[in-house]
Amino acid sequence: MPDYPSLAALDTLLASLPDIGEARRRQLGMVRRELAAALARDALPVAARRNVRRLLETGSLTAYLRLAESGTLRHRLVGGRRPPTSAPTNQARYDCLNLARTAAGLPRLPLGGGAPVLRPTPEAGRLTALRRQLDQDLAGHLSPGRIRLTAVLALLLDTRSRSGELAVQRVTHLTDGHTGIHIRRQPQHGTTAAPEREWLPLSDLSRAALDRWLPLRADLMSRAHGTTRLWVSLRMNHAGILDDDGRATLRPTGMPLEENGLVTSYRAGRSRYDELRRLLPPKMEQLRRAAEEQHLAAQV
């Protein structure tokens, strides 16, 4: 198949995704092969050959998904034919595309992708144990990554914020003394509800976590160009977008952390710290829904 510039840039983009498991890497490889096959068939816009953002834009992916889900782009025959792909494969394909789009600075797909089966949420007792563990952690020495993760988890528990809502939080959203925070609620993907603003009080745990995070954030930010975003990067990285010479532009520490970075830090922290692995569900969204369920139960 032709080696289009957009595919070369996509390879660099996918290689830059941190903390991706072996199974997800295989799924990303499948998506890459299918995209290459779709380009070779001239099934996507011509501009999708030259530019990775055009390759990942909604118009290109709508055509790609239609072909892929029909089985036309299958790498191997099944019983001598290419049947439609299964619902789990379709969902994995959709998730992989959103990983790539987020890394490329694009919003999540406003496409179907099927109704995902919601994973179970932790019971209320585990949330209580998690708060207790975070409080104990704050009393001792913590690495920079652990400090940021603790603050993220504490605010998630207090505000029941989605990852996208957490990513856009700013220090200016905090009230004096960190007693509360203003949240801009974002509608779920695929809905037309208008965003809402909400003020929420913060617990002692969140205030203590912010007392550890904000000085560290200020130090990290001093190496970048400055931002009011609450969550910033701990180390150098790049945006995944290549220049005309095919090189990625490095970004210093202290740059705004995007939604994918927050989700990745959650997965990495859960994997790295044994005491958190037993308390945190695999997905950040499961923890958010558990916090929401606990909040609603307290209102009854």
Top keywords for this entry?
about 300 residues; mainly alpha; two-stranded antiparallel sheet; 13 helices; 4 strands; globular
What's the SSE blueprint?
Blueprint: H1 5-15, H2 22-40, H3 47-50, H4 52-55, H5 58-70, H6 87-103, H7 124-138, H8 144-159, H9 163-167, E1 180-185, E2 196-201, H10 204-221, E3 237-242, E4 248-251, H11 259-272, H12 274-277, H13 284-299
Helix pairs in contact: 1-2, 2-6, 7-8, 7-10, 8-10, 8-11, 8-13
Task: Describe this entry's structure for a reader.
The strands form two sheets. This protein has a two-stranded antiparallel sheet. Strands 3-4 form a two-stranded antiparallel sheet. The protein has 13 helices and four strands. The longest helix has 19 residues, at 22-40. Helix 8 crosses helix 10. A hairpin with a 5-residue loop joins strand 3 (237-242) and strand 4. The chain has helices at 5-15, 22-40, 47-50, 52-55, 58-70, 87-103, 124-138, 144-159, 163-167, 204-221, 259-272, 274-277, 284-299; strands at residues 180-185, 196-201, 237-242, 248-251. It is globular, with a radius of gyration of 21 Å. The chain is mostly helical and 300 residues long.
